[in-house]
Design brief:
Strand content: under 5%
CATH class: Mainly Alpha
Structural class: mainly alpha
Largest sheet: none
Number of domains: 1
Distance between the termini: 45 Å
Low-confidence stretches: none
CATH superfamily: ABC transporter involved in vitamin B12 uptake, BtuC
CATH topology: ABC transporter involved in vitamin B12 uptake, BtuC
Radius of gyration: 19 Å
Number of helices: 14
Shape: globular
Number of strands: 0
Helix content: over 70%
CATH architecture: Orthogonal Bundle
Mean pLDDT: 80
Length: about 280
């Protein structure tokens, strides 16, 4: 194909004003969420908490379904479920003496089952609920963008404020406890932040795929970066670029934008894997 024709084909999606506006809003949403996921996802990868992200993405289901049945805001419902799940994981782990992975499994399965039971009582299965399950980046609104920006600023500021304490708790919890740091509270706070990030990402890729935005970009950055700030910056850039490319490809491939973004993210991880810096 000649260069001029190829260029016209590549620019075809932006000829339509409506699509152009939706695409730019979706791209801005992906960028904000990528930054948010990089801030928290880097800690998740470093601490080996990837399973928590997956559990959270399923555990928010009862909050979503409950809000749907009551005619409330699905995002608020998901947020309530995420916070309850995070606190529940911490409480079960502390009171039962079980390891964290066991506590995660118990709470996650229970919350997901509750969501399925509630879903079976739903009189109809509308597009609003479906969008939260499979994601809809092109449906991001101005309100969603502002709320994501606010959450990103708050989470970023909070993590910066407790970075030294969180580092000590993450890599030497015994020493952290010896110097008087509230280890349990810091761990619970991280769980709540993970839940909050999952809630913000389900708008883009749905509950089943949100863990990819939280984990994959950070894991890709981890293979090349050896400092926490560089890892966060790289993860944010990777997430933004993969998100933009995924949105663009979904137009030409006629595929769902959310899953397409996840596939691009996964392929990027596989492409970088042979070039990881060995420790």
């Amino acid at each position: 194909m000649p260069a001029p024709e190829l260029l016209i084909t590549l620019l075809e999606p932006f000829q339509d004003a409506t699509f152009r506006q939706l695409f730019m809003q979706a791209l801005l949403g992906v960028t904000l969420v990528s930054v948010l996921c990089a801030l928290v996802g880097s800690w998740v990868v470093l601490r080996g908490l990837s399973y928590i992200g997956d559990a959270m993405s399923h555990a928010v289901l009862p909050g979503i379904v409950g809000a749907f049945l009551l005619g409330g805001n699905l995002l608020v419902g998901a947020l309530v479920a995420a916070v309850l799940t995070a606190l529940g994981i911490g409480a079960v782990g502390q009171r039962s003496g079980l390891k964290q992975d066991s506590a995660i499994g118990i709470v996650f399965v229970g919350m997901f089952a509750l969501g399925l039971v509630m879903l079976s009582r739903a009189p109809t299965y509308t597009s609003d609920l479906a969008n939260f399950l499979i994601g809809n980046p092109m449906g991001v609104t101005t309100t969603d963008l502002w709320s994501t920006l606010a959450v990103t600023v708050v989470v970023g500021g909070l993590l910066l404020f407790i970075q030294k304490e969180l580092l000590l708790v993450s890599f030497d919890p015994t020493e952290a406890q010896a110097v008087g740091l509230p280890v349990r509270r810091l761990n619970n706070l991280l769980l709540v932040l993970i839940g909050l990030v999952v809630v913000m990402t389900v708008q883009l890729v749905g509950t089943t795929l949100s863990v990819s935005l939280l984990i994959t970009s950070a894991a890709t950055a981890r293979m090349r970066a050896r400092s926490l700030p560089r890892m966060m910056l790289s993860a944010a850039l990777i997430g933004t670029l993969c998100g933009g490319l995924g949105l663009y490809l979904s137009y030409f491939l006629n595929t769902a934008p959310g899953p397409t973004i996840v596939l691009v993210n996964t392929l990027t991880f596989l492409a970088v894997l042979p070039f990881r810096i060995k420790e």
